[in-house]
Specification:
With 569 residues, the protein is of the alpha+beta class. It has 3 domains: 274 residues, BirA Bifunctional Protein, domain 2, CATH 3.30.930; 129 residues, YbaK/aminoacyl-tRNA synthetase-associated domain (YbaK protein); 97 residues, Rossmann fold (3-Layer(aba) Sandwich). The protein has 15 helices and 31 strands. Strands 3, 7, 8, 9, 10, 11, 12, 21 and 24 form a 9-stranded mixed sheet that branches. The protein has a 5-stranded mixed sheet with strand order 16-14-15-17-20, with no helix packed on it. The chain has a 5-stranded mixed sheet with strand order 28-27-29-30-31, with helices on both faces. The longest helix is centred in the first third of the chain and has 21 residues. The chain is globular, with a radius of gyration of 29 Å. The structure holds one RNA strand of 78 nucleotides.
RNA sequence: CGGGGCGUAGCGCAGCCCGGUUAGCGCGCCUGCUUCGGGAGUAGGAAGUCGGAGGUUCAAAUCCUCUCGCCCCGACCA
């Protein structure tokens, strides 16, 4: 491609609405342009990178026997009523009406559609297993789209779905898929890790995320040197060691804590560390009331609580309901003397406590020296706190968890029969019995990967593409456009590399060399072939390595071999 | 959805509080001359519904009301 003829606009400055490096650089280097919040066009440079990633994804999917298809974007809303996901997705689903007033959704993922396809054709266990995939634009009306294509409302995703007669078969595909994801990310040059994750709206139990390490990623990963690694939404830990303990008293002592509602206020007021306090958080699950007890300085992980209660719709009590249940204003709830049918869930980190300070279920009062098992009974003991950096690892119990940030690039799920049951998708097994498909689904964020690759490696000059997904393998930069020999060399190297199948960008713009150098750095092509008057006279050209910021002089004749060697390494 | 911020030329911004004639600056863009290996200099030039609608006023980018859009923070901390 000749830059003089190409649609490759670059900016010196970042648009003011871009926050993180990848977003700024994608705008500055002319990869994308925003249409409206969370909706982007890909310009030629961005589109090339997207294609290269898609290509790698296809190869890895095909390698493990997946078959590519293309499903519609427009989905009749009845499908979501059937699967029960209408309310799960809620406002995140983009919906529209046709001229007759019938409702449709723009596909956020395709479990429903693919299950509808499978139930029509797959009738026998002999046709199983099957794995279908597609690379298609997806729509989700995100609460808060941000960071450019990193969290967009319209984005490109590879989604695969597998159908099985047995859990063993699913497990095999699941393992293959995990391996394919790891290979895909490795081939894209992205340092990644597979972690246990939270299932979110897709459902199912077993699921793993593939996270690419990046400073500005939205995912938090907790890692232990013993090998334990998990998403912070799901990670388990033993908390931090207690510095001091509250003494148990003969019977709970009621202390006056006027207007002291937060843990911070109460612990300051009583002059004890927040770890002495036990936070009582009140929830409603169906018709039953739930009190959750966790250490004062900890955060409750609602997703864990949902799982413990087996209820995706758990919600915190509102202030007036708190008053009804405890008889006190919000801020003074405690486990002692709650109505008998209240479920009391206690986090295991509280086992280490002797006494506790808890709300008194009376406005402006707390109880000191409370003992669990004597003053109140726990209904259940379950891990519900959010793990944090610095916690003791639950797996090995003597190492400390470290935090690393990253971008969620892939997410794979064992769905079991969640969708096949909801949508009555069945086949006959070898005994002639009707059974529901056992399913898996596997998503990969293709457009997000473009941003993640930039996020994972850039410098103050611009992007540094990994070799495998770079939009161009080399950029040819003639320094002096008015010099005939320079231009002749530029044209011949450009032609030579192109004929050999390399993607080459020729910067034939009639502009100053400095501008070209800056732009070349910005768009991050791994190899720059600089053609200068002096070195050309000696039959040499300069090769500049973007990643290492290093220049080499080589013979003009050796260019093709040099490029070939660079990319085969 | 709650809170905060911002909409002025393709991009980055000033002007607004305290209303006043042709609305500025930098980058970019066009033309000429000089320059030419790390975002050139110079002379000239094009480009704006001041997000939109309504209002106040002799007069509105500026004040008031409504509205649309964009960005950030939050949406468990009792």
């Amino acid at each position: 491609m000749r830059w003089s003829k190409a649609y490759l606009p670059t900016y010196k400055e970042s648009p003011s609405d871009a926050e993180i490096p990848s977003h700024k650089l994608m705008m500055r280097a002319g990869l994308i342009r925003k249409l409206t919040a969370g909706v982007y066009s890909f310009l030629p440079l961005g589109w090339r990178v997207l294609h290269k990633i898609e290509h790698i994804v296809r190869e890895e999917m095909d390698r493990i026997g997946c078959q590519e298809i293309m499903m519609p974007i427009l989905h009749p809303s009845e499908l979501y009523e059937e699967s029960g996901r209408l309310k799960h997705f809620g406002p995140e689903l983009f919906t529209l009406k046709d001229r007759r007033g019938r409702f449709f959704a723009l596909g956020p993922t395709h479990e429903e559609v693919v299950t509808d396809i499978a139930r029509a054709e797959i009738k026998s266990y002999r046709q199983l297993p099957q794995t279908l995939y597609q690379i298609l634009v997806k729509f989700r009306d995100e609460i808060r789209p941000r960071f450019g294509v990193m969290r967009a409302r319209e984005f490109i995703m590879k989604d695969a779905y597998s159908f099985h007669e047995s859990h063993e078969s699913l497990a095999e595909t699941y393992t293959n898929m995990a391996e394919a994801y790891r290979r895909t990310l490795d081939r894209c040059g992205l340092e990644n890790v597979m972690v246990e994750a939270d299932a979110g709206k897709i459902g199912g139990d077993v699921n793993h995320e593939f996270v690419v390490f990046a400073e500005h990623g939205e995912s938090e990963i907790l890692i232990c040197s013993c090998g334990y690694v998990a998403n912070s939404e799901r990670a388990e830990s033993l908390g931090k060691p207690l510095a001091s303990k509250e003494k148990v008293q003969k019977k709970p002592e009621q202390v006056s804590t006027p207007k002291m509602k937060t843990v911070e206020q109460v612990s300051n007021f009583l002059d004890v560390s927040p770890a002495h306090l036990v936070k009582t958080m009140l929830y409603k699950s169906g018709d039953s009331m739930v009190a959750v007890l966790i250490p004062g300085e900890r955060t409750l992980n609602e997703s864990k609580l949902s799982k413990v209660l087996d209820d995706p719709y758990v919600e915190p009590l509102r202030d007036d309901d708190i008053k009804k249940l405890t008889g006190a204003e919000a801020g003074y709830a405690g486990p002692v003397g709650l109505p008998g049918d209240t479920r009391i869930i206690v986090d295991p980190t509280l086992d280490e406590y002797d006494g506790m300070i808890v709300g008194a279920n009376a406005t402006d009062a707390h109880l000191r020296g409370v003992k669990m098992g004597r003053d109140f009974e726990a209904t259940e003991r379950a891990d519900v706190i959010a793990a944090e950096e610095g916690d003791r690892c639950k797996r090995c119990s003597d190492q400390i968890l470290q935090l690393r940030r990253g971008v969620e690039m892939g997410h794979i799920f064992k769905l079991d029969t969640k969708y096949s049951k909801a949508m009555s998708a069945t086949f006959l097994d070898n005994e002639g019995k009707e059974r529901h498909f056992i399913m898996g689904c596997y998503g990969f964020g293709v457009s997000r990967a473009v941003a993640a690759a930039i996020e994972a490696d850039y410098d103050d000059k611009g992007i540094r593409w990994p070799k495998t997904i770079t939009p161009f393998h080399a950029i040819v930069l003639p320094v002096k456009m008015s010099d005939a020999d320079t231009m002749m060399a530029a044209e011949s190297i450009y032609a030579e590399l192109r004929e050999a199948g390399w993607d080459v960008l020729l910067d034939d713009r009639d502009t100053r060399a400095g501008v070209k150098f800056k732009d070349a750095d910005l768009i991050g092509i791994p190899l720059r072939i600089t053609l200068g008057e002096r070195s050309l006279k000696e039959g040499k050209v300069e090769i500049y390595h973007r990643r290492d910021d290093r220049t080499e002089l080589i013979d003009r004749e050796g260019v093709l071999d040099y490029v070939r060697e660079f990319y085969s390494a």
